[in-house]
Amino acid sequence: MTSTEAAAIALHDHAVLWSTGEIRASDVVNAACDALVAGLDTPGLRILAACTRAEADYDVHDLFPAALDELGLTFYPVGSEAGREAAVRALARRMLAGELTPREFTFHLHQRHGHELPLTERLAVLDDTYDILEYGDRTVDQVDAEVTAEARRLAAHPTVPAEPTDSPS
Known about the structure:
Elements: H1 3-19, H2 25-38, H3 43-49, H4 53-70, H5 81-96, H6 102-113, H7 121-131, H8 140-155
Helix pairs in contact: 1-2, 1-5, 2-3, 2-4, 3-4, 5-8, 6-7, 6-8, 7-8
């Protein structure tokens, strides 16, 4: 994978994490800067990267979808199931990169989605398993391995079907 491909994936991950409230707008601006440094370059991306932290909360909402579109990346509407699923996959990649422990990953997803999102049901069950380890015959390492395998499965499919961002007229 080239550095521009990795930067595009990272930028897309930031898009879905921002649209689901997982990260701040200033994180999006930082990701835009990283994408420019990695070699992605469009007018919209440059404008987004030029935002100050103070401007980010106000401007990212308008600038980010256009910048993603210029790069051929999907922007998921806030609250969409496809966006939530894409965010889960982005968080799985973060866990695999060592930014979250398996326990933190399952706990966060269980808190955020409960047992309601089919994509995260197995992880919610594994989060419950962590809670009862002292009463069973499984170890933390065994559950961590199952969570890691599930995260790999999720991360191996980085895209989900796009939902339209405009309502029909």
